[in-house]
From TrEMBL:
Gene3D superfamilies hit by this protein: Dihydrodipicolinate Reductase, domain 2, NAD(P)-binding Rossmann-like Domain
Organism: Chitinophaga arvensicola
GO molecular function annotation: nucleotide binding; oxidoreductase activity
Highest classification ranks of the organism: Bacteria, Pseudomonadati, Bacteroidota, Chitinophagia, Chitinophagales
Database matches in PROSITE patterns: TAT
Domain Gfo/Idh/MocA-like oxidoreductase N-terminal, first and last residues per copy: 50-169
Protein name: Tat (Twin-arginine translocation) pathway signal sequence
Transmembrane region(s): none
Keywords of this entry: Oxidoreductase
Amino acid sequence: MSDQSRRKFIKYLGGTAALLGVGSLAVTASETEHVEILQPEKRVTPNDKIRIACVGMGIMGFGDVDTAIKVPGVELVGAADLYTGHLAKVKEVYGSHVFTTRDYRELLKRKDIDAIIVATPDHWHDTIAIAAMEAGKAVYCEKPMVQQIEEGHRVIEAQKRTKAVFQVGSQRVSSVALAEARKRYQAGEIGQLNVVEARMDRHSALGAWQYSIPPDASPATVDFDTFLKDTAKMPFDPVRFFRWRNYRAYGTGIPGDLFVHLISGLHFITGSLGPTSIYASGNLVQWKDGRDVPDVVVAIFDYPETKEHPAFQMTLRVNFADGGGGGEYTRLIGTEGVLELGWNDFKIKKHKLPEAPGYGGWDTYNTFTKEQKDLYVKNYNAKYPADKRNAIETSSAYAAPKGYDDRLEHFTNFFESMRTGKPVVEDAVFGLRAAGPALVTNESYFSKKLINWDPVNMKIV
């Protein structure tokens, strides 16, 4: 880090630097790496009760409800789902007093419900979210916020018109680790950002969305016609209903499910509004089970220079056919270091070039005559003292405390906004700026062409 960058870094971190110790950033690669444990903000939660209902009691629905009711003063009073087995499970888990229905509109009519969680398949997000806001409810909408770009603009308009509290469920942006990573990026720790690499690979049937189908799935237990919404009508198909992510009609594929996490995190750290061009490629390699979306997607996003960040490229990859077993990381690569994101942790690795360029190795020095070599070394040593000849490598690590839950943090922020008017972390505009590039990735993949994106107005150009 240059002296100027270091001054900027110390000034920006302020109290955080004092808390963690700037000296902790100078751990050499040869030393045992120390992990700074980041402490989340302690919130004082008012005692007023917030009553919630959830539409869509699948994997995300139960996970969201389980997390939401951990927040003091939050109570589940209703749930809607198109499969009766899920409604029976709601009563098993949360009690027979919880109101259940196949028709989400019954929840919106109830005066005792303050907030709605939307955890349905993607093609229902906009309809339910808008209806809930118009009914006077706060909305926590799972990612991606919408399935189509134009739907996102309607959600934004509805939120502005109704003034409803609206949070998108990419919980990573509420992580204490991501907040610290943002501070350190903005303080200039990695120098000038130039490339971002993001990977999220898997190699399992469940990871590739081949979810279990209950034995009692039938037209009697599933309202399949309502599930189809405005998509092509067809006979009951339990695979489409329970594995909806595998179909373009109902989901958003790999980009909408997984790229959106990577995009959200990047935009949160850098303050970016989004890329200006997107190109995607991929294939259906292993999971040929009738799905019409790829199981391998690779994309490159071009981000323009703005007042928030320099121009850089981002490459994203998700591979469900990774024979190495899978894995994930996001790396922000700068001219002075690399910020490597985990989920609730990150590392900063730095390799500072020495003033001396070095000689020998793969170098024209080896083609010099002996006389010229001797003269070159003499001049080199006079110009570069010994302390200017070695690269400086450092590594520092940061992590949330054991047991930390970023989804709980995200819901706490949502309910705090309902109670106090404090802004949410991920509103509808942020949600579309994350979902939009993911949806454009699908468009690029299926059209086999580069697509230009307007990140300010959030539209294809």
